[in-house]
Amino acid sequence: MDYLEKTNTQFEQALAECRALFEKKLHDYKASWRILRPTALTDQLFIKAKRIRSLEIKKESKVGEGIRPEFIALINYGIVGLIQLSEGFADTVDMPNEQAMRLYDQFANEALELMKKKNHDYDEAWRSMRVSSYTDLILTKIERIKEIEDLEERGEQLKVSEGIGSNYMDIINYAVFGVIKLSE
Question: CB under 8 Å, gap of 24 or more: what pairs does 46-50 form?
């Protein structure tokens, strides 16, 4: 198996783990995340990424959960973000579990396909990066999302940004790389 195939397989395995957890939570809570407005979702991503950074710096968790579960949460919330961008937010839980899973699979597959293209062009550069760099890049993407949301709230147009969706995709991909690295 060449290095690109290995990455594809590891990426798919990480996404499968995230999907299994998402499906279990969907069973327990239904699509309760449908009520999250964009800014609340951004803040949820922010607290997960800040916790990772805090654990990386302090080297200790008082809650008992480590960094890897937070990367998994970032992946799942990133996919929720893409669903919310596509469907809009709701005032009630208005999405059946089957539809939520179809959308989850659609956006997880889009993230996988994007990673394959970028990994081809960047030639596995992510493998030489530190996990803490993924964290910082994710936090940067979240700050960019916040700025885009603020611009949109003021009615201003983006000048060069690819938008919130591309930032969600990058967050998902960096978080998957974190899951893979922490699994090796």
Answer: 46/139, 46/142, 46/146, 48/73, 48/74, 48/77, 49/74, 49/135, 49/138, 49/139, 49/142, 50/139
Q: Which of 82, 129, 132 is nearest to 110 (CA)?
A: 82
Close Cβ partners of 11 (under 8 Å, ≥ 6 residues apart): 112, 115, 176, 180
65 close to 172: Cβ distance less than 8 angstroms: no
* pTM higher than 0.85: yes
Q: How far apart are CA 126 and CA 107, in angstroms?
A: 21
Tokens 């654990």 -> residue: 55
**Is-contact 170 74, C-beta < 8 A?**
no
For 64, the token pair is 């008992």
Q: What is the pLDDT of residues 157-177, one digit of tens each?
A: 988 988 999 999 999 999 999
The contacts of residue 114 (CB under 8 Å, 6+ apart) are 169, 173
Closest CA to 71 of 178, 167, 168: 178
Are the CB atoms for 100 and 83 separated by under 8 Å?
yes
